[in-house]
Write a structure and sequence with these properties.
CATH superfamily: VSR Endonuclease
Structural class: alpha+beta
CATH class: Alpha Beta
GO molecular function, one term: endonuclease activity
CATH architecture: 3-Layer(aba) Sandwich
Strand content: 15-25%
Number of domains: 1
Protein name: Endonuclease domain-containing protein
CATH topology: Endonuclease, Chain A
Distance between the termini: 13 Å
Order of helices and strands: EEHHEEEHEHH
Number of strands: 6
Helix content: 25-40%
Organism: Flavobacterium zubiriense
Keywords: Endonuclease, Hydrolase, Nuclease
Largest sheet: 4 strands, mixed
InterPro entries: DUF559, Endonuclease_DUF559_bact, Restrct_endonuc-II-like
Length: about 140
């Protein structure tokens, strides 16, 4: 522990401090839907998942299609209280809904990081470097 805060990982030598949010709400009625979304495998989510699962991204544990309250988020890093959303065509014409959802998640103390579907498909290396930088800035 450094400064009484637990280090959960290191990215490029930078300590990343734990930001675990206790007791997040969970709507069990969404369990089947979350499972179906995991199995459906949207291409950009699968590409991203291959970069981060099993600790491949700096030994940080990511959950896929995680239920938080009445919402299912694309990816969740429990130790950081960080949600990663991949915005593709399913988000078109849903700005008000997406904003309400994001405001709710932030009200729980979570942070939301958005990545566009097309950037995952066409600029993955830079996307991953930008995610590293974001995590260092927010949790370092």
């Amino acid at each position: 522990m450094e400064n009484d805060r637990e280090i959960t990982a290191y990215i490029n030598g930078h300590p990343i401090y734990r930001n675990f949010i206790e007791s997040l709400p969970y709507n069990i009625k969404l369990k089947c839907r979350a499972r179906a979304l995991r199995k459906a495998g949207v291409l950009s989510e699968v590409i991203f998942w291959l970069q981060v699962h099993k600790g491949a991204f700096w030994k940080i544990d990511f959950d896929r299609q995680r239920i938080i309250g009445n919402y299912i988020v694309d990816f969740y890093v429990k130790t950081l209280g960080l949600i990663i959303e991949i915005d593709g065509s399913s988000h078109n014409d849903k700005e008000a809904y997406d904003q309400k959802r994001e405001d709710y998640l932030i009200s729980l103390g979570l942070r939301v990081y958005k990545i566009s579907d097309s950037r995952i498909k066409h600029d993955l290396n830079n996307v991953m470097m930008e995610l590293e930088k974001y995590i260092i800035e927010e949790f370092g």
